[in-house]
Amino acid sequence: MIPAAFDYKRAGSSEEAVALIAEYGDEAKLLAGGHSLIPMMKLRLAVPTVLVDIGQVGDLSYIDDRDDHVAIGALATHRSLETSELLLSQCPILAHVASKVGDPQVRHRGTIGGSLAHADPASDLPAAMLALGGSLIAQGPAGEREIQGSEFFTGYFESALTDEEMVTEIRVPKAPGDSWNYQKFNRRAQDWAIVGVAAVQVEGATRVSLVNMGSTPLRADAVEAALAGGASSAEAAEQAAEGTDAPTDLNASPEYRAHLARVLTRRALDAAGIS
Amino acid sequence: MEISVTVNGATSVTDVEPRTLLVYYLREELGLTGTNVGCDTSSCGACTVHVNGESVKSCTMLAVQADGQEVATIEGLAPSADQLHPMQESFRDHHGLQCGYCTPGMVMAACSLLEENSAPTEAEVREGLEGNLCRCTGYHNIVKAVLACSGQDVS
């Protein structure tokens, strides 16, 4: 399978990339690691006429300690997250979730910024990002703005980014310690989650997020409220499918996904020692 | 677009269409047909090569993304025409192949794995090769070959 023809532009900096996507509008797509976009282009589900390659922008691969949070350049690969000493000690859930994306070859090329901007409701990293209560920095022609993770995912493969913006940085609060867990349920090792659940204690509260239970990654608000009200993990987990709109596909019906969400939430809370 | 890619130590300057996938650049432009196309959907790993020392699926990368980078394919692994790379030797010794179609990708993925983890456990080898499918289901001996190549006793 070969993608449809496109014009290829390589950006040397994020400023240049933003100028290029502003010039070409919604005909252009940014290419980072390409591990979400290229498969879609091969299937001709995505047919951009201009590709702006940011893969060789050199200064966006950092993982930096910024006192109360960790700042991650948009081009940091899943592999670099998975092996980052800083994340392993200060934000271990993010390192762990990154290690569950795809397979080693995918993790060598795929980037955190690309994965979040792709806004696939079945992806692992958006769920970790939501559970942690992180934010994204978007750069556009008028400068930078910070978008809260909770406001970033707006629909099925849709984000709050405008056609003229790119993600340059991801910020996550530090959440050291062992009170976290990620349950990814799938049939084959390298697959997307049929349902996934991330649970983490951060900034004094328990946050729970769901993968593939709606058109966007979701926070399990009812579970969080039940826990805050003193419910046990088993009682709170019963609320996991509240307010969700689970998809149906060859792998699972919405009813089965709702069941999985409840079971996986209980397992995640118990494994994280949250009750 | 003109790209300059160093493949197995030799730099080639070639004019490619931007939509050319790395695997077709290797196979059709450079004639390096050791890298196979299996599923063509980033699942099976038959097309695994190294880019800057790390395993990648060359069906899911554009040749233009490899501009200025170092690529290694199965053809570049053996030190000489009459000597195999230790990983290839280990696959032969432990019967780590049947039909052989997945083998170039398996070997490249296995070399990348040992580069990152020089003494993996059996579970780590199995997880480390999760991006490579063998339709003969010869996983048992493939895992054995990788463990043996890392210097571990598999008897």
> Number of folding domains of chain A?
3
What's the alpha carbon Rg of chain B, rounded to whole Å? 15 Å
In order across it, which strands form the biggest sheet of chain A? 4-5-10-6-7
Number of beta strands of chain B: 5
* Strand residue percentage of chain A: 25-35%
Shape of chain B: globular
Note the quaternary state here: heterodimer
CATH superfamily of the largest domain in chain B: Beta-grasp domain
How many H/I helices of chain A? 12
Strand count, sense and barrel status of the largest sheet of chain A are: 5 strands, antiparallel
Organism (chain A): marine metagenome
Protein name (chain A): FAD-binding PCMH-type domain-containing protein
InterPro entries (chain A): CO_DH_flav_C, CO_DH_flav_C_dom_sf, Diverse_Substr_Oxidored, FAD-bd_PCMH, FAD-bd_PCMH-like_sf, FAD-bd_PCMH_sub1, FAD-bd_PCMH_sub2, Mopterin_DH_FAD-bd
Keywords (chain A): FAD, Flavoprotein, Oxidoreductase
What attributes characterize this protein structure?
heterodimer; A: 275 residues; alpha+beta; Uridine Diphospho-n-acetylenolpyruvylglucosamine Reductase, domain 2; Uridine Diphospho-n-acetylenolpyruvylglucosamine Reductase, domain 3; Enolase-like, domain 1; 3 domains; 12 helices; B: 155 residues; Ubiquitin-like (UB roll); DNA polymerase, domain 1; 2 domains; 5-stranded mixed sheet; 5 strands; CO_DH_flav_C (chain A); FAD-binding PCMH-type domain-containing protein (chain A)
Description of the molecule:
The complex is a heterodimer of chains A (275) and B (155). By secondary structure, chain A is α+β, with helices and mostly antiparallel strands. Chain A folds into three domains: 7-53, Uridine Diphospho-n-acetylenolpyruvylglucosamine Reductase, domain 2; 63-173, Uridine Diphospho-n-acetylenolpyruvylglucosamine Reductase, domain 3, CATH 3.30.465; 180-271, 2-Layer Sandwich (Enolase-like, domain 1), CATH 3.30.390.50. Chain A has twelve helices and 14 strands. The longest helix of chain A is centred in the last third of the chain and has 18 residues, at 254-271. Chain A is globular. Chain A starts with 6 loop residues before the first strand and ends with a helix. The N and C termini of chain B lie far apart (52 Å). Chain B has a five-stranded mixed sheet with strand order 2-1-5-3-4, with helices on one face. Helix content of chain B is 31%, strand content 15%. In chain B, α2 packs across α5 (139-149). In chain B, β1 (2-7) and β2 (10-15) form a beta hairpin. Chain B folds into two domains: 2-76, Roll (Ubiquitin-like (UB roll)), CATH 3.10.20.30; 86-149, [2Fe-2S]-binding domain (DNA polymerase, domain 1, Orthogonal Bundle). Chain B is globular, with a radius of gyration of 15 Å. Chain B has five helices and five strands, in the order ββαβββαααα. Chain B has helices at 22-29, 86-93, 103-116, 122-128, 139-149, and strands spanning 2-7, 10-15, 48-51, 54-57, 70-72. Chain B is of the alpha+beta class and 155 residues long. At the A-B interface, β1, α2 and α6 of A face β4 and α3 of B. Chain A: Residues 1-177 form the FAD-binding PCMH-type domain. Chain A: GO terms for molecular function: FAD binding; oxidoreductase activity. Chain A: This is FAD-binding PCMH-type domain-containing protein.
